[in-house]
Fold:
Amino acid sequence: MTEVSTGPVASASPIAAVLSAWREGVGALAGGALLGALARSLLAINGVAAPSAAAFVGGGAVAALVCVLGVVAAGAARRTVRFGRDALAVEGGLSPGATTVAYDDIDLALRRETAGDRRLGTASYELVRSGGADLFIGHLRDPEAFERALDARVPTPRERVDAVDEATVREALQRSRVFWRTWPSDEPLPRSAVVTDGTLVEKLDGEGDVTPARGDDDERPRRSSPGPDRPATIEGITRNGSGDAAEEFTGGSGGEGVAE
Structure:
């Protein structure tokens, strides 16, 4: 059983989470306005006197927005990351229990900052795992301390392969772990387990040198998604590749969920 201790600990910022929850906020406003208009219509149909439709629509939208942002803030306020001897555990959030990830299962940690993160000095991370679903950890305070703790525990690419020549290391990684099969050929292997270069993260997401069509206020964290060239699981390799590729896979055990 993987051992997880109680420290060191990293925690999330509720304010940064709320600032980055623009999609949830827009959805709450629209849903609340719709429910308010529906409630006003039902009252009118049944002959019940009620305030104006505008009051119902506006009140429903505001109430829904407050509820949704309150849930987002509460989830972030309860979220902590604990570093153990062999694994880290993400606790709290909106899901009960903890999500545990062994350090050996993590290929890299990608730093993904939202506009809210940049304003408040927080940062979000995606833990990329060849053998399971990637884990997103949002809006952590003191990101430098989190990165140092993670880098001290997650093996770097060179530490995973007993070789000096980069080409040999790259070939061995590509054979054994799915993530490295899409590593850009013009990028050297990272010397750290944490990638903080935004341009490189975009390249890993398949955007290359293309300038993203997003404004400076776009709150969406950039997340990579499994695709035909990067199946997330052994089943994906079996479906999209040959049996030989599946036999070579040693990416580790699968994980659960996404911690936001």
Q: What stands out?
A: The two ends are 25 Å apart (CA to CA). DSSP finds ten helices and eight strands in the chain. Residues 208-258 have pLDDT under 50 and may be disordered.
